[in-house]
């Protein structure tokens, strides 16, 4: 498959690129600074500005088979990047005839009542608001075959290849495992139109995804 990644130079985006290449895919790596994209014969760096309008975004996506949104502003530009940038990318994908859209979100992004009660989320309200509107748009205002992946806080611990899904507990999550889970989502048709909560656990990623 030919797969577009928005945010390909980020922590998760870089790891996701490697995982998708390993799975035999071609990656179109969208980034604000495409010169920072990893060099590989199976990776095509393209310029992607999330302040661009929908028509300006469309050439970067081209005829990809699937789109990943892993971009983020680091809380510096939440409305333009994390919220509206994501929405415009969805619209660009739809206009290009791309149906599959995988969103890297955050745990409880669609459950505002949890934001002030879960330790670790109480200081991320503005970020969660941006995610709330982007995620709701994806689910309710598009016809895309979406998967919404909701991990809690990510760490730089080595991945284990094992996770827990959909129990809604807050915990750590190695970025390696988040990226691998994102990559493996495409292997399972049953992940389409699903919201998947995840954290570190004891179930192999493939097995966990096959049961969502």
Sequence-ordered SSE layout with sheet pairings:
Elements: E1 2-6, H1 11-22, E2 26-31, E3 43-47, H2 54-61, E4 66-69, H3 78-95, E5 100-104, H4 125-140, E6 145-150, E7 154-155, E8 162-165, E9 173-174, H5 175-185, E10 194-200, E11 203-204, H6 205-210
Parallel strand pairs: 1-2, 1-4, 2-3, 4-5, 5-6, 6-10, 7-9
Antiparallel strand pairs: 8-10, 8-11
What does this entry show, briefly?
With 212 residues, the protein is α/β, with parallel strands linked by helices. It has helices at 11-22, 54-61, 78-95, 125-140, 175-185, 205-210; strands spanning 2-6, 26-31, 43-47, 66-69, 100-104, 145-150, 154-155, 162-165, 173-174, 194-200, 203-204.
Index terms:
nine-stranded mixed β-sheet, 6 helices, alpha/beta, single chain, 212 residues, two-stranded parallel ribbon
């Amino acid at each position: 498959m030919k797969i577009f990644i928005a945010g390909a130079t980020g922590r998760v985006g870089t790891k996701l690129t490697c995982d998708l290449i390993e799975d035999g895919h071609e990656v179109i790596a969208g980034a604000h600074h495409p010169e920072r994209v990893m060099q590989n014969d199976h990776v095509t760096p393209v310029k992607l500005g999330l302040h661009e309008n929908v028509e300006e975004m469309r050439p970067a996506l081209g005829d990809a088979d699937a789109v990943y949104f892993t971009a983020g502003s680091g809380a510096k530009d939440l409305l333009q990047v994390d919220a509206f940038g994501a929405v415009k990318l969805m619209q660009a994908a739809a206009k290009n005839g791309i149906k599959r859209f995988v969103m890297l979100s955050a745990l409880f992004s669609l459950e505002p009542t949890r934001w002030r009660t879960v330790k670790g989320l109480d200081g991320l309200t503005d970020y969660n608001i941006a995610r709330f509107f982007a995620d709701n748009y994806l689910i309710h205002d598009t016809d895309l075959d979406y998967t919404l992946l909701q991990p809690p806080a990510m760490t730089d611990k080595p991945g284990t290849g094992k996770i827990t899904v959909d129990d809604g507990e807050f915990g750590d999550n190695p970025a390696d495992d988040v990226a691998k889970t994102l990559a493996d989502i495409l292997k399972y048709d049953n992940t389409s139109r699903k919201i998947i909560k995840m954290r570190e656990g004891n179930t192999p990623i493939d097995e966990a995804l096959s049961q969502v």
